[in-house]
Amino acid sequence: MKKDDGIVIALSSGKGGPGKTTTAFSLAEYWSSAGKTVAVVDCDPNHNITNWFNKRKIDAEVISEDESLVDGIKWVQELEAENIIDTGLSLQVDYDVTIIDVAGVLSNHQLYAASIADLVIVPAQPSEDDIIEAVKTKKIIQNASRLGKREIPFRLLLTRTKYSNAYKFAKEQVKDFEFPHFDTEIKDLTIFKEARFSGSSPEVLNPKSTGAELIRELAKEIETIVSL
After folding, report:
1. N- or C-end of the chain: fewer Cβ atoms within 10 A?
2. 3-state SS assignment for residue 54
3. Which helix (H) or strand (E) holds 20?
4. Half-sphere exposure of residue 137, counting CA atoms within 13 Å on the CB side?
5. Taking the domain 7-219, which CATH number applies?
6. End-to-end CA distance of the chain
7. How many whole angstroms separate alpha carbon 176 and alpha carbon 191?
8. CA-based diameter of the chain, in Å?
9. CA torsion sign, 159 to 225 to 5 to 60?
């Protein structure tokens, strides 16, 4: 990476539903509101980021002549695994932050995205299945590190959390697997569901909400890792 290049952050999981997309667009809008230039890459055949972006365009206050730029956030759809590296690296030159929403269950996407990432976030709900899939994703990231002969930072992010026996068990699993993780957890809050439906984010819907505060806390943790 050249000195003036931006940061690439991949959100990666081996299964659908752990909160990749919600976390990706929440972080994107937070950093955009904080004055960073931001690009998001949708690699998921379910088009979750694309659907969010299209909803966002409807209510956007600032729409550029560039159809792929809304409220300062750049959107790119890239479903071909072999193009992820070129797409990510080209965006990295022009944007402070490039966020890649990696397709679940497609290991090539995970490997290629990790290979160019400055940080890989592995979202997981507090369930045994999600933690097991997170461990598989961890192995893919470690393989990318070996192939690239560099250490690729990664962190587990617990999502949709609420206190329960399943939550306690998941926390124990994370400890047993010695999985590096964020202190911040994304709680199971209604505002994240509302944001998904409306194509918005907690930062836009209610910047004083617990959800918006959690995203800010997560962003600050990320910034200490990648020096953003």
Report:
1. N
2. helix
3. helix 20-33
4. 35
5. 3.40.50.300
6. 14
7. 32
8. 51
9. positive
Residues 50, 40: Cα–Cα separation, whole Å: 9
In the structure encoding, which two tokens stand for residue 174, read together? 């994370």
Q: Is 163 helix (H, G, I), strand (E, B) or coil?
A: coil
Walk along the chain (228 residues) and give the pLDDT tens digit of each residue. Answer: 444 689 999 999 877 778 899 999 999 999 999 999 999 999 988 888 888 888 877 766 555 566 787 778 999 999 898 999 999 999 999 999 999 999 776 678 999 999 999 999 999 999 888 998 999 999 999 999 999 999 999 999 999 998 888 888 888 888 888 899 999 999 999 999 999 888 889 998 999 999 999 999 999 999 999 987
In this structure, the number of other CB atoms found within 10 A of the CB of residue 227 comes to 7
Tell me what pLDDT residue 120 has. Answer: 97
Q: For the chain, count helices (H), then strands (E).
A: 9, 8
CA distance 53 to 30: 15
As a whole number of Å, the CA-based R_g of the chain is 16
Place of tokens 């962190």: 155
Are 55 and 64 spatial neighbours (Cβ–Cβ below 8 Å)? no
What does the alpha-carbon distance between residue 118 and residue 227 come to, in Å, rounded to a whole number?
Answer: 10
Angle at 179 between CA 224 and CA 164, to 5 degrees: 100
Could you tell me the residue ranges of all domains in the chain?
A: 7-219
